[in-house]
Specification:
Shape: globular
CATH topology: HIT family, subunit A
Strand order of the largest sheet: 1-3-2-7-8-6-5-4
Radius of gyration: 17 Å
CATH superfamily: HIT-like
Distance between the termini: 27 Å
Strand content: 15-25%
Helix content: 25-40%
Structural class: alpha+beta
Number of domains: 1
């Protein structure tokens, strides 16, 4: 468990940029320590669950870091696609997709020299947002101090937009994906966060139903461009 702050009334969104950058550095340190202590670990997954709507019972702001002796099914499928793309093109997949998102511009929520946040064209949830460094970076340990601050600023921009959108604490699951501890994957995989909010509109949760659970295929009843525009219109300040 990673406790974000001593203030039980705070949230990740309420912390300042340097504090969040420090938490990203903590993820790097813990990833290294876990692998050094247990070399059989193939995957390290930091995440945060926020809100009773996603089953949280401990409301002091915190995240968790899980380590697995194998690559779990969801990241395995994603990283295999990244590996195949890199093998075919010599370029990591997500940075190529980010380049196209920046060129299009309609789904971008935040962009700087070092980091980007956007509603992906393939969003499964109406308010799903991805946050990533601009430069190819396999894991938390690949981030420079400057990139950590930029990534923290991008993340805070999204989290504050979430809370300001409906003027309430916005429940979500945030998962950080980094390269598996397997040969050849570091060059192909891009560190990034996926934020999966529980609401699809005020007072209406996004439940996984027949097609999602039964078939493993998501049905999103909102255009990513519309939700990106909605979030982009929410004005927030991040120092």
């Amino acid at each position: 468990m990673v406790v974000f702050t001593q203030d039980a009334r705070a949230s990740l969104a309420s912390l300042d940029t340097d504090h969040v950058a420090l938490l990203l550095e903590v993820c790097a340190h813990r990833t290294s320590a876990i692998v050094a202590r247990a070399p059989e670990v193939q995957y390290v997954l930091p995440f945060e669950n926020r809100g009773a709507e996603v089953g949280v019972t401990l409301h002091h702001p915190h995240g968790q870091i899980y380590a697995y002796p194998h690559v779990p099914p969801v990241p395995q499928r994603m990283h295999e696609s990244e590996f195949a793309h890199h093998a075919a093109t010599g370029e990591p997949l997500l940075p190529a997709l980010i380049r196209e998102e920046l060129r299009d511009g309609r789904r971008i929520l935040h962009a700087s020299e070092e980091a980007v946040a956007f509603v992906p064209a393939w969003a499964r949830y109406p308010y799903e947002v991805w946050v990533a460094p601009r430069q190819p970076t396999a894991d938390f340990n690949g981030l420079t101090a400057t990139a950590r601050v930029a990534l923290a600023r991008a993340l805070l921009t999204v989290l504050r937009k979430y809370d300001a959108l409906w003027q309430k604490p916005f429940p979500y699951i945030m998962v950080w994906y980094q390269a598996p501890r397997l040969p050849g994957y570091a060059a192909a995989c891009q560190l990034h966060a996926e934020l999966l909010p529980a609401y699809r509109m005020p007072g209406r949760l996004k439940y996984l139903a027949g097609t999602e659970i039964g078939a493993g295929l998501f049905a999103n009843d909102a255009l990513p461009e519309d939700k990106a525009a909605e979030l982009r219109a929410v004005d927030v300040a991040v120092a």
